[in-house]
């Protein structure tokens, strides 16, 4: 594919380098995507010594859409690993709902794969509030994807009913896929009350945790898309103090030096991202060296890629940096990961490469990057089901390369850092789609039209 390189003149950065007090904000108003609802979660979790979890979850929901609702739609991903849905699993999960109620009255519901559909006896009108209570038990599979038992540890990812977003007059819920993220939630507040066996430690999205953790307690966290719990048995801990405490939990005592190196790298990466974009939203970052590489608010896991064998220490450090960058692109700036996966994976890969170039002072290898993507003919912002097995080549590789292309003739790395700072200031704790990114970029670079983006983005509504 032939790419035309345009002369780009950064408009926002030339008037003011930092966006939050930027007078340009009065000239450019973000047009972000509404989630259609607000929600607050109160989760009570008890773990038995045999690995059975008993949960009670309450969700306070407000309809902020323009439509009355006749139903509520939740993701419930643990059901994907039950025997009935995944019969090939040797050690599947179990799920047993005891009760679901709406404002104290028993509700009618269906659970098919990961879709939990609750019928409302009375329509929920715009601006009205409702409370949903769930009571259920579950166990974790041993071969699950993120939601799994691993090395005597329990990874509770997406373990509670997660309210879907609502837009275009319908619930925004796609069929579950284990490549990419097909669950999409908005920012919510969470409270967790837990009780676990004495021999375990809780590591999670909640801030200000201590180690060893008490076997019972309560935490709260605000304005996050989800919460993740790792319940670990006899982990090794390496801790790095600072304005942001870094805690690295590993499985092997003999790898303490590696865990220290990971902690040092994580600390440096967070400082860099704070310098070029804005504050990391927590006082603590936990890194769990176990399970598949994945980001969650305030905590990341990294040990394998898609369940394969453990990876080389240098590659492991790179993965941790990538997952830390996700604290900004996914954690702070939201997007639909099914329809616009490139807006978190591409921006995260772009920010990660910026970090590496800032350390090495190497010039950006534009030509070699272009050669790696020249065979990729599709746009980078198609829904996940429209790609074949090479989805990662588009949403990670081609998208980050095309972001670099914007700065090849104007400013390189330093200008790219200014762009991310402005982007962060405009869109923190908001949801962006491709259309809004193009609108922002056109204004930022003072472009007469959007033809620059037609070579790599699908721009039809």
Radius of gyration: 22 Å
Number of helices: 8
- Overall average pLDDT: 92
Query: What structural class do helix, strand and pairing data support?
Result: alpha+beta
In short:
The protein has 461 residues and is of the alpha+beta class.
Protein model, in words:
The structure is a single chain. This protein has helices at 11-15, 256-276, 313-325, 342-360, 366-373, 391-405, 412-427, 434-444; strands at 37-47, 53-63, 69-75, 94-102, 105-106, 108-112, 115-124, 129-139, 148-150, 153-156, 162-163, 165-167, 170-172, 188-195, 200-204, 216-224, 229-233, 236-240, 245-250, 284-288, 294-296, 299-301, 333-334, 430-431. It has 461 residues and is α+β, with helices and mostly antiparallel strands. Residues 1-9 and 13-25 have low confidence and may be disordered. The longest helix has 21 residues, at 256-276. The strands form six sheets. Strands 5-4-8-2-1-14-16 form a seven-stranded mixed β-sheet, with no helix packed on it. It contains eight helices and 24 strands. 23% of the residues lie in helices and 29% in strands. The two termini are 23 Å apart.
């Amino acid at each position: 594919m032939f790419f035309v390189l345009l002369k780009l003149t950064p408009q926002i950065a030339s008037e003011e380098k930092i966006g939050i007090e930027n007078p340009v904000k009065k000239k450019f108003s973000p047009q972000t995507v509404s989630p259609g609802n607000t929600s607050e979660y109160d989760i009570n979790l008890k773990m038995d010594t045999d690995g059975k979890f008993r949960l009670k979850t309450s969700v306070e929901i407000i309809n902020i859409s323009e439509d009355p609702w006749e139903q509520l739609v939740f993701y419930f991903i643990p059901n994907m690993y039950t025997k009935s849905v995944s019969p090939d699993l040797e050690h599947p999960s179990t799920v047993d709902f005891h009760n679901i109620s709406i404002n104290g009255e028993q509700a009618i519901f269906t659970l098919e794969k990961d879709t939990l559909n609750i019928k409302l006896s009375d329509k929920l009108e715009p601006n009205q509030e409702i409370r949903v209570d769930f009571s259920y038990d579950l166990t974790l599979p041993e071969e699950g994807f993120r939601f799994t038992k691993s090395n005597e540890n329990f990874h509770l990812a997406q373990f509670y009913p997660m309210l879907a977003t609502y837009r275009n007059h319908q619930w925004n819920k796609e069929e579950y896929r284990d490549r990419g993220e097909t669950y999409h939630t908005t920012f919510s507040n969470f409270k967790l009350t837990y009780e676990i066996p004495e021999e375990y430690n809780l590591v999670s999205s909640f801030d200000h945790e201590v180690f060893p953790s008490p076997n019972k307690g309560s935490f709260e966290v605000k304005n996050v898309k989800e919460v993740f719990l790792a319940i670990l048995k006899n982990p090794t801990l390496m801790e790095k103090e600072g304005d942001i405490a870094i805690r690295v939990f590993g499985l092997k005592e003999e790898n303490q030096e590696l865990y220290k190196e990971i902690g040092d790298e994580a600390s440096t990466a967070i400082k860099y991202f704070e310098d070029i974009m804005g504050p990391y939203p927590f006082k603590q970052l936990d890194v769990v060296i176990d399970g598949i590489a994945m980001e969650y608010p305030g905590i990341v896991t990294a040990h394998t890629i898609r369940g394969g064998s453990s990876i080389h220490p240098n590659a492991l450090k790179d993965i941790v940096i990538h997952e830390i960058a996700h604290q900004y692109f996914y954690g702070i700036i939201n997007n639909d990961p099914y329809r616009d996966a490139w807006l978190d994976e591409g921006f995260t890969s772009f920010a990660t490469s910026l970090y590496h170039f800032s350390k090495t002072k190497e010039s950006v290898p534009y030509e070699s990057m272009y050669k790696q993507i020249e065979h990729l003919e599709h746009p980078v912002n198609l829904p996940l089901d429209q790609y074949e097995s090479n989805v990662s080549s588009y949403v990670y590789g081609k998208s980050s390369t095309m972001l670099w292309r914007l700065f090849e003739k104007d400013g390189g790395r330093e200008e790219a850092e200014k762009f991310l700072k402005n982007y962060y200031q405009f869109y923190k704790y908001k949801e962006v789609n491709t259309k809004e990114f193009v609108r922002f970029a056109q204004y930022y670079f003072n472009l007469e039209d959007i033809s620059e983006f037609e070579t790599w983005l699908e721009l039809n509504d």
